[in-house]
Specification:
The chain has about 350 residues and is of the alpha/beta class. The chain is built from 13 helices and 14 strands.
């Protein structure tokens, strides 16, 4: 089985200079940030110290800015400019990775059909998330043929109803907003012929800068004139949830500065705030933690995979269920910040899940 990996790649130029390939420099800066030493970073990347030092000096001349700073007793650290380069790389990855991962999965399938004569895969449509990404890693380790397409929750369940996928991922809040949320998906879920596999429970809430310097507490603060908000795109399950919660709190989205500024993933929202380009966003706790932000929990939600009940006997679907119900995968889910894998792999009817 072929495995295709497509990684974001970017170049940067200044004036009339030729574009500079950032790949090697970003790897070196990341290693310096982690190790606090040029020598250790070079060793980690299997470069000579001379090569690493030369790359830094050449890059500093190109950018006209220092990239590292050293001091007795505190090792080597990155300058604000170097940190901004790493942030830019993380933003590129956060924005593009879902699209590139979907494309890689599509290419794998087509190569398998053309070269290996294989066409049978598990077609998974789901919104991009940390537990879903962890599950795909498990599939890869098990060499399970899966075709992945990242799309909004509503698009995923709609695709399931059209038989365009085998499993559709979607998420529904617990509590007062569960009923209106599930009503959004009900037009595509068949209570008689579909069932659900529980993936995880996770926290959604507000992302704020470390230490919460703006003293943000809840949704009512979003209308403050001194705050800049960054949102998820229209049609996403997280955007739908936020709009339900704003309406329930009597907060008008028209009064929120930046409500129409959108990003495609939780990580991209977190990266935007970590850069200082916004003060607050809404998303899952894991993204907040990975970008060093503070998190204000507001709601818990369940993430499910919907699938036809008749497909439970399919060998590939059974392999998927086996991974979901394994202790190893449940452990992975529990290690994600804000995730709970207690019911991971549980199979229910639609009525049972939303009784």
């Amino acid at each position: 089985m072929y495995k295709v990996s497509i990684k974001p790649h970017w170049e940067i130029g200044h004036g009339d200079d030729s574009p500079f390939d950032t790949t090697e420099l970003l790897s070196l800066l990341t290693a310096i940030q982690q190790s606090g030493s040029i020598a250790k970073a070079a060793q980690q990347l299997r470069h000579s110290y001379r090569h690493a030092w030369g790359l830094l000096r050449t890059s500093e001349q190109l950018f006209g800015h220092s990239l590292i700073q050293s001091g007795r007793g505190r090792g080597t650290t990155l300058t604000p400019f170097a940190s901004k380069l790493l942030w830019a790389d993380r933003m590129v990855s956060a924005r593009l990775s879902p699209t590139l991962d979907s494309l890689a999965s599509e290419l794998e399938t087509e190569l398998g059909k053309t070269v290996e004569g294989k066409s049978k895969t598990v077609r998974l449509n789901a919104s991009h998330g940390f537990a879903v990404a962890a599950l795909l890693n498990q599939f890869n380790q098990a060499k399970l043929p899966v075709e992945v397409r990242y799309r909004h929750s509503t698009d995923a369940v709609a695709a399931l109803s059209r038989q365009e996928c085998d499993l559709a991922g979607f998420h529904v809040p617990l509590g007062e907003f569960e009923k209106p949320a599930i009503a959004t998906y009900a037009k595509w879920l068949n209570k008689r012929s579909d069932c659900l596999i529980h993936l995880a429970v996770r926290n959604q809430g507000l992302f704020v800068a470390t230490g919460n310097p703006k003293n943000i507490r809840d949704l009512s603060d979003l209308t403050r004139s001194d705050l800049r908000f960054v949102n998820r795109e229209a049609g996403s399950g997280t955007r739908m949830l936020l709009e339900l919660m704003l309406a329930g709190s009597g907060v008008s989205h028209k009064k929120i500065n930046g409500f129409e500024n959108t990003e495609f993933t939780h990580s991209a929202v977190a990266a935007f705030i970590a850069s200082g380009m916004a003060d607050v966003g809404f998303g899952v706790q894991t993204a907040s933690q990975r970008f060093g932000l503070d998190f204000i929990p507001l709601v818990r939600e369940r993430y499910f995979f919907a699938l036809p009940t008749a497909s439970l006997n399919d060998p590939l679907v059974q392999a998927v269920i086996g991974i979901l119900q394994s202790a190893a995968f449940r452990s992975v889910v529990n290690e994600l910040a804000g995730y709970d894998g207690t019911d991971t792999g549980k199979i229910q009817s639609v009525q049972e899940a939303f009784a």
